[in-house]
Every structure is written in structure tokens, then in C-alpha cells.
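Entry 14. Ran structure prediction on the chain below.
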Amino acid sequence: MRKLMIVAAALALVPAAFASEEGGGAAAWQTWHAGNQLGDRASLQRGARNFMNYCSGCHSLKYVRYQRIGVDLGISDELVKEHLVPPGAKITDYVVTAMPPADANSWFGIVPPDLSLITRSKGTDYVFRFLKTFYADPAAATGTNNLVLAGTAMPHVLSDLQGVQRAVFDEHGAFQSFESAVPGHLSAAEYDAFVRDTVNFLDYAGEPSKLSRATTGVWVVLFLLLFTAIAWLLKQEYWKDVR
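Output, C-alpha cells:
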């Protein structure tokens, strides 16, 4: 797949800011939180790399243009054209997968969904948990299953990074824990960081204007505070003679 080379510092995988497996370990997977930070531009850049390398082969972002990603994430047009835009496409095109729907139906039995609004419809925590809870299931067509979305048609495309894990269930069918079957290339902390960056980018893709809106909001609040102070001083000046 294409490798997105932005800047060395931005591409480096960083340890998770905090452990996602909050109290209770894997058994408490339903309490895991993405903890992504939309204002972290380096994380967004890494997330864009992750999406293009591992997701864009099947999934689209049909409401986001390549050029908009570059502008918002601080990536030059040259790098966007070199590492994001596929052959035959233009920088002003929307991010659309090259996979024909007929092939998708043949391979997976379903057309992979567009991910433009996945975090807005499901939430960032849902996507984070989904990408972390794949487990080996010989009975499944893809050889894997998922705790968040049982019977998912999506294979574990990140298995080379996370590794393959087995799910341990008790006699009542309740999930207990994961066991490592095949180790991945990343440690648990590195994989958490990888997933968090990917979720961060998908969160951005769901509403790109959120980045500028958050920045504008800070200035609006500061202006209102300044205006309030001026208005109070003006009131004091007008009313001092009345008293």
C-alpha cells in the first residue's frame, strides 16, 4: 500500500497517553475510551497515514476532499499529491475507494461502508473498541470475529500490527479475557496509540470545520470577556456623577 510520509516526528508512534484498559482489564472492554484529541495535529497526520495505508483500500470518505485534508492538517499540496491522491485522481477530488462494489460484494458479501460520518453516528469510543476487540474465530468466514460487532464481515486488517488474539469465554458465554495467539509488530501501548490516531482522524473527517470552530470559539470568548470589562468600566464612568 501507499506509505504516507509527512514528517518524521509526526509519523513516530507514541505511547498511549493513558491505558485504555481502564479498571478491569480486557473484561471491561465496554468501558474503554478513545481519549483522542482533535487539536493534536501530529496525531491527525498520523491518523491520515493510517487511514490511507490500511482503510482506504475498502472504505471511502466521500464528504472529504484530499486538498481539504492537506490544508487542515498542515500537509503541503505536493505531499498530498504524492502520498494521498491515487493515480488518475485530482487533489480536489473526494476520498473515494477504488474497490468496485461488485468485487466488495463478492469478497465480503457486503459493500464496506463509507466512514465519513462513522464517529458521528457511532461515537469515537465505539470505533476505538471495535478496532481493539477482534479475535480469532475459525467458524467465521474471515477467520475472525469482534466483540463490538459480532459477525462482522470485516477481516482484521490490523492483525499484523496488533497480532492475533483468542477470546476466552466462561461456561455461560460471557467474555473473560484475551490471550495472545500470534504477536504483532506493535506493543499494546503502541497499538493503542495507532488506533487512537486513526480514530482521531476519523473524528476530524466527520466534521472538518470542528477544528476551526474550536479555535474561533476561544477568540469569541476572549472578545466577550474584554467587551464585558469595557462595558463595566463605561458604566462606572457614566454613573459616578449620579451617585
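Residues 117 and 222 are 31 Å apart (CA to CA). Will compare against last week's run tomorrow.
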